[in-house]
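Lab notebook: predicted structure, single chain.

Context: the supervisor wants predicted structures on file for every construct in the current expression panel, including those that have not yet been purified. This is the next one on the list. No modifications to the sequence; it matches the entry in the shared construct table.
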Amino acid sequence: MKIGRNWTNIFILDKLTPEEQKKVLDGTYDLFSMNALGALKFKEDVIGQIQLAKKYDLDHIELDCDVPNPYDDFSTTKCKEIKKYSQDSGISLSVHLTYSNAGASVCSLQELDRRAAVEIQKKYIDFAGNIGAKYVVMHPGTAPFYMVSPIYLERLKKQLVKSVVELAKYSSNYGIKFHLENNVSFDNIFVEPEECIEVIKIAQGLNAVVYFNFDIGHWFTRADKGKPLPENPVEIMKKIPKEFVCELHVNDYIPGKIIFHPPLIHTEGPLKGDGLKKYAELVKKLNPEVLVFETALKTLEQIKNRHKIVEEETKYIKEIFEN
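Prediction complete. Output recorded below exactly as produced.
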């Protein structure tokens, strides 16, 4: 089982100019402004992301194609360089397909919109294939609150199945394993594992190879949408069919405070302490190929201590998941 990361916003500060860094560190710019200034620069430096993985003794990184990203503009030469560098470094790659803006229309009831979203996702699957990525991950799309009714949901599911089948088969042309990931509750649809599993089973019946990347942190968000978490929430992993598991995302969520992806060594969420240990026990039984940890830093103090947080959290993760 490989241990990997999606670097999210952890090292974006390092891509800013000295003047921009100063304004972030003295509080003139908030962290959203930091992201606006540096996220694209960080995403573009894929070699640097791989080097960070080596520095922190990881096996894998996941690249984020959400908006904004530079990946559709990468040349064939640049993609070949990334592929060779990752292979020489022993760091495998996965690609997270875009999940906002037009890419969120993969389940749209409007066929024009759904087709456009599928074509956009294919561009990123091409990128994934060109850099030698082993996995791609896609969210199921979003819907407005007024479409959360049984008839609409059935129609949305049919639309999503069409997109999943086409994109999974397209990924297979590159030897890439295609994953469907559950949404956060604020997306209104396809949050529960049963909903995603049903889509995957239908797609598999149509000769598509599809895996389920169950993001437990996403599922925890149900607590802020009127669906309380059970006493032992990590036991939700028992509902995930082992044969559907290949890559899993690991992150926490703090209900009530609406904090996504807090550092696992600081978290107040369900994965604190014994929660993460119990989760690890269940995950080991599912035997995934790779775990992608998605920590995001939320405070200026965390940004200042980013290197220490990554070092300590990585050590903590390895102690729990590799023992």
